[in-house]
């Protein structure tokens, strides 16, 4: 029989025994206690064993296939390039190769992500509604997505969901609504509604409806509103995609900037938010203002979460004879000239499509956003991507557009800027020769000049910049198909005149 706690306490009266005897008795009692514990564990009912926690997450091993990029791998597996680069200690996300083994973010055992797809939350969607659409419980979907608090998801935040071929829309229950009244209003059966929405109906409840159609979940005239995935890395651009039920005009306001929306067709519009690589990580308010002729304007306030980028530090010491080009006054005056040119450029047509091409097919020597010191403190950043190339290498325009600047500058040397429409520009600095002129129409791949080392340059290379709504952003975001914008316009000669 197992020794009880009372039996152990009774040994107090034996303190008068010798220390050795006391130790022997204590060890004997402990042996009996341990034996009892082992027997209890072995005799536990088998049902308790089934309540053991699930297998812990593991790091899947992925083998890179021919033609894949880190971006395409991230898209397929519900993550992002920055996460994969950190997880695999990749200093250059471009330099992966077929056959390379990569670790993916932790995933639950038995989950096949090939049967799941990425979904960016749209305005009005909730995690519980999306989970219900999959036929799984919300906690199961949350576990796959490693979410501790699914109720705090933001518009644009990406989750992984099982593939489904059943189209559904969202609706909002009103005061006094019943399953029958909802079914009659939306043209479906009440039992189908109850099957998709098992909880009782009440005013303000979000509901799933079978089939395609315009949701009445959102304020008029918005049919859908989506963002590029959140959180957004410093130095990247955020895309707002707006679908309306009637023609509208709109603008977007953020960080003391107001920018226009760009019209794809009568009811599809896009807007951009460009983030500086020096912007502190945090949550920033963005206001989208939508107007229908004859109606009161609608203002939507949406948070955008900004996370830190992986930016290094570079010290650039001016070579002999170039000290004057590092003068802060000269640097700022030339920047002001380009800023003024970029801020005026809001061509309403789009002539580009994703992905942008690389201007030269060489290795990168310096990335966008690197903190720069020109012989002093690190108070600036690298506004473009540097490609290592020999003098005379042809430089190709990365998308169709019109030349808006082609002239020698003091700091940037022989420089070319191209307008691609919708506020998107590219710049090509330090050329040894300029082969275009302002106003010239360019097709993707046309040569704009040759690599050189003119201006403030420490050696032959191409500095390539990409601007969105007047601000430089990371051009490497745009060499991947990070968003589907549809077909671009045909480049008209008469509408882009920079002569």
How would you describe this structure to a colleague?
- The relative contact order is 0.08.
- It is built from 10 helices and 28 strands.
- α8 (179-186) crosses α9 (190-196).
- The chain folds into 4 domains: 5-49; 53-110, LysM domain (Membrane-bound Lytic Murein Transglycosylase D, Chain A, Roll); 222-307, Immunoglobulin-like, CATH 2.60.40; 313-495, Glucose Permease (Domain IIA) (Distorted Sandwich).
- Residues 1-22 and 37-56 have low confidence and may be disordered.
- Helix content is 19%, strand content 29%.
- The protein is an alpha+beta fold.
- β27 and β28 form a beta hairpin.
- It has helices at residues 5-10, 19-42, 46-49, 70-76, 81-87, 127-134, 138-144, 179-186, 190-196, 328-343; strands at 61-63, 101-103, 116-120, 158-162, 168-172, 206-210, 222-227, 232-233, 237-244, 249-254, 257-260, 262-265, 268-274, 282-291, 298-307, 313-315, 364-366, 371-373, 380-381, 385-388, 394-396, 401-409, 413-419, 424-434, 441-442, 447-451, 461-468, 471-473.
- Strands 17, 20, 21, 22, 23, 24, 25, 26, 27 and 28 form a 10-stranded antiparallel β-sheet that branches.
Features:
single chain; 499 residues; alpha+beta; Membrane-bound Lytic Murein Transglycosylase D, Chain A; Immunoglobulin-like; 4 domains; 10-stranded antiparallel sheet; 5-stranded mixed sheet; 10 helices; 28 strands; disordered N terminus
